[in-house]
Structure formats: C-alpha cells, structure tokens
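Weekend entry, working from home. Most of the wet-lab plans are on hold until the incubator is repaired, so I used the time to fold the two sequences that have been sitting in the queue since the last round of cloning. Logging both here for the record. First:
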Amino acid sequence: MNASMQFLLVIRHGASFVPSPALVAEIIDWVDAAQRHGVLVDGRPLRPAHEATSVRTRGGRTLLRRGCFDSADEQVAAFALIACGSEEEALAIAASHPMARVATIEVREVWRGLDVAIDADAADR
C-alpha cells in the first residue's frame, strides 16, 4: 500500500450520545484491523466537550472559556490519524469505521507543505 498521504478523521456525535458495549467492541476491532494493515498512525477518544477549555488571543489578551469553542449540536468525540494512498482510500477507511453508522466523520488531509515549513523553522532554532 502507498501510504504517502495522511488524513485526520474527526469523529463527531451529539452531546447525549453514549456508545453501546457492542459498538465499543466493534470500534476496538476496527482499531486492531487498521493497525494490522498499517493504516492507523494514531487515534484516541477525547474527554467530553464540556471539559475542554477554549483559548483565544485577541488584542494581546488571552481569553479562556470553559467548554467547546462552538455550540454545534455535534461535538468532537475522537480522532484517528490514518496513512493511505489517496483521498478515495481515506474515505473508504472512514466509511468502514463503526462510528460512521451512528455519528459523523469529517475526513481532512494533513497539510504536508505546512509541516515541512514548520520542521525547517524548528531546525533553524
């Protein structure tokens, strides 16, 4: 498999969503399979959005707000970083995730040009 591209799967669901034990088992199986196939780079569930702290700096002042930065019905619940050969492959991988049946998975390509510039800047320091 050509794994030259990376995509972030951002998994979102409603604030009241609670996964069933069967769904959790399916997710564990998906993670195991993705690791065996060398597709999953990293991934984790996240603590609930109400436990987050949003940080913004405006006009030289740092503003902290407890909770999610927006009030959308769906909140970020987990992420998975995958490596694959194309966007089509990334979409197929996302569609195979058990959470795709009960939540929304946003698929975003990692911006490779920007990380090269950041790495070069860090090396210069």
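Second, folded right after the first finished:
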Amino acid sequence: FIRAIFLGARKPVAREFADAPFFVLLPQYLLVAGILVMSFFPKLLIESISAAIDPQFASTLRWQGMSLELIYATWNPLPVMAFAVAIAAILFALLWFARRTLPLGGASRTVYSYAQAVGAALTPPLATRFYSELTAMTVFAAERARRIYTGNGLTYNLCIVYYFLALYALGGGAAHVWALTRPA
C-alpha cells in the first residue's frame, strides 16, 4: 500500500488529476491552523469557556482533583508541541528529499522489501490467527444480525419493542409490576 502510493510510478489514469482548488483546501488549512493554535495555547480556549459559563460551575470542573484552569495554568504545552511539529517537519523533509533524489527503481524496492520483512518478523502467527478469527466472528455476527431485519418496518419495530421489554424485565420492572398487582 505504501509502495503503491508513495514509491511507485504514477499511473496513467492519475496523470489527469490535479490538486484541489485553493478554496477547497482553505477550510482544511484553517482547521489545521486552529488545531495548532489550540494545541500550543490551550488557555485561550479554557479561559474563554470559563468566562462564558457560570463561575461556580467552572470551578467545579475537576480532573484528578485539580480544576481545569489550574491544570492549564501549570502545564506548558509549547515545548511538547514544538518538538512534535519539528519531528513531523523533519520527517516530511526527509521523505520529500528522498522522493526527489532517489531513483524510483532499486532503492525504493529495497526499502519496501526490508520493511515487509521486518513487518513479517514482528507479526507472530498467533496475532495473525487472532485477527483472522476476529474477522470471521464479526462477519458471522453481521450475517446473523442481517437476518433479523428483512426490510419489513413492522418486524423491525417489533424487535425494538422486544428489546425494551427485555431491558425492562432485566431492570426489575417485572418485580415492580408484580408488587403493584398483589393484594395489600
């Protein structure tokens, strides 16, 4: 998958596609900018929310015994986020440089075959079998669930009524009704 997307030659069908127009990409860029600003400076959001809601309610918002305002007053996310952005930029630059300078033939095949060998060695047969069985059970459960609903709306509504009746009975509803109907 990675080789087909990043390392392979461009398919003839893909040559006719171009990048999205700027006005389609603009909301994505604004969302990324907003996420970065809120990640670097979370107090901007927390302080405005705290000011907007009732002060008594804002002081009761607690996590692990500390108020949210206290948590964000003592925690400085700037170094962590700067490090994460720097690592992402370095990895992007390395990928861009490798894409521009390395030939698409031998080097990319060698990297891909090495990654494939490492992935095969790190994926034990037990994990592969577990996920295969989990997939089979999920497909089986989906097929069984699909048999319940045949497209008939009345049958579907009846199943919902049965579901709520079962929940009512499991919640002690039958004992409550029985207690009401017994003579005093």
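Plan for Monday: verify the second prediction. Residues 111 and 117 are 10 Å apart (CA to CA).
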